[in-house]
């Protein structure tokens, strides 16, 4: 269930991200203009926090499944380790988003 929800949120976030990038590039915006629009914008920051969380957790779930199938790494401890890895990965994305926001 969690895997399906994170995949759906991630798919929507990727779609919004790509449409935004294509629109900005086609509109002739420079990188500085894009950064100027995202700087201090709480809505974009919230969007990218959700994006980073869903990407980090989705990736960790996939890696957990691969580890379980290939090397038999299963159990509560393994699940918690993969959750921690996903949250650390998401933290990197959130830190990048904060860099655009601040």
TrEMBL record:
It is found in: Membrane. Its cofactor is heme. GO terms for cellular component: membrane. SUPFAM superfamilies: Fumarate reductase respiratory complex transmembrane subunits (SSF81343). One of its GO terms (molecular function) is metal ion binding. Membrane-anchoring subunit of succinate dehydrogenase (SDH). The chain crosses the membrane at residues 7-25, 45-68, 80-101. This is Succinate dehydrogenase. Keywords: Heme, Iron, Membrane, Metal-binding, Transmembrane, Transmembrane helix. The keyword Acetylation does not apply. The keyword Membrane applies. It comes from the Bacteria. Pfam families: Sdh_cyt.
